[in-house]
Amino acid sequence: MLKLHRMLASSRSSFSLSKAISFNKPTLKHHYSTSSPAKGYNNSGRILAPYSVYKGKAAFSLTPALPTFTKLHSGSLVVDRRGSIMVTFMHAIGERKYNWENRQIFALSATEIGSLITMGPQDSCEFFHDPSMKSSNAGQVRKSLSIKPHANSNGYFMNLTVVNNQLNTKEFFSVPVTAAEFAVMKTACSFALPHIMGWDKMTHQQSTGGGTVGLQPKVVERQDFESEWDK
């Protein structure tokens, strides 16, 4: 479920970009190497290449989650599960240390990625996810990701709010990004978009003469979670 707002930048207090730029950024190598893999999953040979933004109070990373395909009786392949861009947020727990074990994930759909890509310096957008929408459990667990410009229009705030009424918890993450960091995010998302839609497979099939040549069923490689809701 997507709800999008666009508005001019407000007069909220600005973030010191010089402080953000000078922050000594670590890598995710430690987090990935020390976190436990999903049960029954061997991650040997898996390629990890997230784009990460580390700041003083929190951090986030972006990585594409590719779609999976199902083979029909006709021999054709159809998308079984759509791909997404996984945005993973972590709280800082010390100098250059982040709480990877208690991370929160927000999966951006193709349309939501389109909203991010088309944002201008003074635009804002907000996305709402609720796995139980239109059911009796609606609102029990909900996530809100907002992207709002700095007051001086030279960057954005990436904010994630996760409300879990079942556990009576509420988490909030806020990571300031510079204009340069956001430009990298937009370019990376633009590149990944046809891949998470499965169109790269389809166009490769066409370029090799039709049929299913060059388009084999994708082996399902489990992400850290099956979806943004599995923990």
Automatic annotation (TrEMBL):
<dbReference type="InterPro" id="IPR013742">
    <property type="entry name" value="Whirly"/>
</dbReference>
<keyword id="KW-0809">Transit peptide</keyword>
<keyword id="KW-0238">DNA-binding</keyword>
<dbReference type="Pfam" id="PF08536">
    <property type="entry name" value="Whirly"/>
</dbReference>
<protein>
    <submittedName>
        <fullName>Putative transcription factor ssDNA-binding-TF family</fullName>
    </submittedName>
</protein>
<comment type="similarity">
    <text>Belongs to the Whirly family.</text>
</comment>
<dbReference type="GO" id="GO:0006355">
    <property type="term" value="P:regulation of DNA-templated transcription"/>
</dbReference>
<dbReference type="GO" id="GO:0006952">
    <property type="term" value="P:defense response"/>
</dbReference>
<dbReference type="GO" id="GO:0003697">
    <property type="term" value="F:single-stranded DNA binding"/>
</dbReference>
<dbReference type="InterPro" id="IPR009044">
    <property type="entry name" value="ssDNA-bd_transcriptional_reg"/>
</dbReference>
